[in-house]
Structure formats: C-alpha cells, structure tokens
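Quick one: structure for this chain?
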Amino acid sequence: MLQQQINLSTDLKQLRDEGYEIEVNGGHLIVHHIPYVNSSKEIKFGKLISTLSMNNNITIKPETHVIGFMGEYPCNKDGTIITAIQHANPNQQICDGIVSNFSFSNKPVNGYDNYYQKVTRYAQIISAPARSLDPSVTPQTFKVIEDLKEESVFHYIDTNASRANISMLNLKFKEQRIGIIGLGGTGSYVLDFVAKTPVDEILLFDSDNFLQHNAFRAPGAPSLEELNNKPSKVDYFASIYSRMRRGIKAISEKVTEDNIDMLAGLSYVFICIDSNSARSMIISTLTKYGVTFIDAGLGVNIAEENLVGTLRVTVGSKSKNDHIPLRIGSEAIDDNEYSNNIQIADLNAMNALMAVIKWKKMCGFYQDLKEEHHSTFTINTAQLINEDYTA
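Got it. Here's what it folds into:
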C-alpha cells in the first residue's frame, strides 16, 4: 500500500526517487534519517513528520507549513539551538513508534506548493550544521521503507484523523465487530457515524426494504430510480458505505431466536428497533452472551400543534445491567405517533449521536467520568438527564 500511495503523488515520488527515506503512516508523511546536531555537538538522526493533505489518495498543496520532528532539538554546529524555526514542544504520539517531540515553523510567503518543497527545505535547514561537521552525512540514503502495515479498512487514508492529531485514539476501535439491529432512521445514522471509525466489521440487520418514507429520515439523498428499485435497507446502506470502507456485512433478516447466535462474540450491538417484544428477547440474550448493547429509542407524540417527546439511550454491560427491566419495557406501546411522522430526521440523528458518543466513551475515545448507563433528552425542555451509574 505504501509504495502504491507514493507512486500516485509526484511530490512524494520525487522525494523517494531522490533517496529520501519516506513512509506514509496514519495520514502522516514520515521522513527518516534526517541528520542534525544536538546540544552536545554530536551528529544524530531524526525524523520529519508532516500531516498529509490529500484528495482521491493524491497529495494536494499542504494545508500547513508547520512540520513535526522526532529526536533531540536540532542545533547549530556550536551546540546552540536553531531558533529560526522554533515553534512548539508537543511530545505527541503520532502513530505506533512515532512521537513528534518538536514542531518547527518556516513559512514561505505563499506557503509550500507541495511536500517535496516542504520536506527538502526543512531537511536543508536542520541538516546543514551536521553536514558542515561531516560532509558525508545525508538524508538521501536511497533506502526504501518496507511496508509492513496491515491493510486499512478504508479505501483511502483518513486524513481527517491526522489533521486533528487523533490517529492514535482511533486505534481504540481496531478489531471491534459492531452489530446494528434496525436500519431505520436512528440505525442508519448510527451506521453513518460508526462507518467512519476503523472498526473491523459492521453487521447490519434489517428485513425491510428502503422505501420513499425512509428517504426523509435517513442520511443521504436517494434518487427516484433507487427508490423505484425498492432495495433492502441493508443492501442499500451497505452499497453506500462500502464505497468508503471494507467490512460491512448486510443481513436482510430480523433478529429472532433462530438466528440470534450471530450476535455472539460481537464487541458492541446497537439496538434501533421499535418492537418492544423483539427488543426484550435480544437484550435478554445479549446479556447472557456478555455482549455490551446500546439501545436507542425515541417516543414522539402530537400535543396540539407541536411534537413532544423524549430520546433515550440505555446501555447494558457486564459491569451493569440490573437497571434494564426498569428502563426498557417489553410490551407494545400503541399511542406513539413516531411511525406516522416521517420528517424527524433531526431526532433520529440526535438519538444516534447520543448512542454513538456513549459507545465512544465506553471505548475510551472520549473521557467518561460518570459511566452512566441511561440517558434521556426531553425535546420541549431541552433537558438531558443521566442516570444508572456504574457502582
């Protein structure tokens, strides 16, 4: 993947062809073997680290002129630091084995046009003192970095994570297998958010077709031709998100007692269905399996000329599930206007956000100080209540 990626971009290819030891890792360009002088006047070798700006897996003009560096602070040949490029000391882990100890700033009037210009300029500034002490040292070793990385689930590099410096945090989602039961309004938004994380696999469960009313409470905008084809919901959404990533499995079935064993061994399961009896059976079985589930639900009713209601997210985990009977009913409710109201995509999205944020907190991506297992948001009062904390 690395060499193919480099070949697509003329600036990266030029760096490699001229002998620079370059690597693409986690949305970053890493340039190895950069000679520099430390404060003890010794010649050392560090690494330049730059975020990558890309479109269609091809580099574009760098968004920032700032670059990171792994190593001691580069100095002049007399051991004094090179102050002209001094910027910050982040000591931030970028990816496995790579830490940006310092960041440097050297900005041309119009910025750098490409990564060849950016890398060679910083390499020249940092390496000049070392080369004045020993003319034989060079960053151009013509050594090719072997690509030992595992294949990414994404078809293109997640440059958003590298821009935000959260590539290492995203590793918390690796090797997870996620189930989403119900691809209606809320479940489809859950998929939209989960698909943009590097989980290994996403299993989609729904037996319904994607029809016209679904288009008004789901992400995206289907064409009239797509609606006329009446695809199954799981196939419709799998086809969309498979453009971005691998690992999406469409299962056009309801989850029943006959097939629920497919949920055994999953990391997390999102339950986004409106049948209390089916929900009760699924929750009972997942509890026996020891699989953490996140149940999302909303109840909306007409009050005079307005809609009122509550959004709910309830979690069951190995550490806490005694609250479930009090929070999630097992009997059908007949007075909910939700099934007749198709224009509440905002509530579906918010309910999905509540569920996904809770999942990310449980994964350690977001900090979780309360470890609540039940949350409700009341629409007309904008009141968010968290309850059922881990003891």
